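dumping these here so i dont lose them again. two proteins, back to back, each one seq then structure tokens. dont judge the mess
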Amino acid sequence: MNTKPGIFGKKLGFTQIFGEKGQISRCTVIETGPVVVIEKKSQDKHGYTALVLGLDAAKEKHVNKAQLGYFKKAGVAPMRTVKEFRCTEEFAAKFEVGGTIKLDQVFEVGQTVDVRGTTRGHGFTGVMVRWNFRGFKRSHGVHEYQRHGGSIGTNMTPGRTLPNLKMPGHYGDETVSILNLKVGMIDVEKNLLLIEGGVPGSKNGLVTIRHAVKTKIRKAR
């Protein structure tokens, strides 16, 4: 189970920042707040340690009674989006229920992070769009096969279509993680996190950012 510190927010778009030597870094802007701590789960009571975080205040009429009771019991305003983050006891002890999480309490400029989001959906597409197939030749005599995928089965043995063949179908709308991206800039006052490179998802899409789990640690010589 991933217990690395993390937070979630909305993807706003792209921008660029300039380094000390004039180099340009293309960055994705993510609005991460204000993120409110709704609940703290402990090892003694729940069997694991986690923080339940909320983003974007919601009106009471847009929340059902069960959710409204949960927020009132916690003593916080209703939230549109609620997510649970597994973490260590040391990290959870830094925050209190009802308080907000600041970006500089979780990340620092230059560190590597893992970002997870939902890609844009493209509906039902053919093999040329979904799998980048070349397609068939378009010379004389070819009829209605220009964008087909070709043969999908065998002759007699095993006499069926094998699983996991690349075929037309629903394209996009998948959960994708991008590992080892670099934090380019942090704006604590505006709750903006700038990450170098592309992040999966469309504008205003929900993304999750955590400390990288596969970062190579260089040994001191």
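---- next one ----
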Amino acid sequence: MTGGFPGAGTINENLARAAADVGVAMGVGSERAAVLKGQYPESYSCVARHAVPLKLANLGAPQIVPQRPGDAVVGPDEVRRAMELIGADVLAIHLNFLQEMVQPEGDRRARGCLDAIGTLAHRFPVLVKETGAGISRAVAESLRDRGVKAFDVSGTGGTSFAAVEHYRAVERGAVREARVGKTFWDWGIPSPISVLELVPLGLPVVASGGVRSGLDVARAIALGATAAGTAGGVLRAASTGPEETRAELETLVHELKVAMFLTGSRTVAELQKAPYVVTGESRPWLHR
């Protein structure tokens, strides 16, 4: 979720302790700062001290291909360091090209990313995740064929990083990038639709993007997702203290159990078969 700046270590310490206590998975934010620049490695390494049941390291797709002559590129050695830093079980490679297009200093070269991901996926267990724009079935199929083991859809409905970078661009006087951020503010595939598109591929699918409660987790699982990821509420709790973080995670789990009780689902596998109705802005996507 975070890392690589002063104060991030406290947040990740709170998250890791609570995740270990409650028994949920945890992913850190991009480890680029630590593995390529040697900055704030302790903001990530604190996670390794806790028995989190599933830990996800995190590096960006733009960093695995050369952006400019002389740029450092993430390869197997850097991936290994990123995973060892937190004792990770899985490497998450995030796709954030919309965000990069809005950043004045963005890394915008994507040529070769699919093959580079495939190269890493044959050496490490790789999950590919988006950062707010969703993953299409075509992209997922291409990644699956290259050895990727799982997906985190991170569709629209949660944080818009185009919006975040729009405001940063405005502050920096980057007129064109600020306009691009505003134009593409809501660009992407809704999280529920991305889940429905990827589940038939037969690989684990994490639903994220707009997941704010245990009921949202239940909804995602009913659509066929293997698990769900959330950030905002937990991040606010982790910025406060360890007890607040644990309470937030326990509440999410309790809400999920309430939804399971109300649908007569004794197990997550049964919840995956519960009937559901798609409404709102997601509904037209099913009939496109």
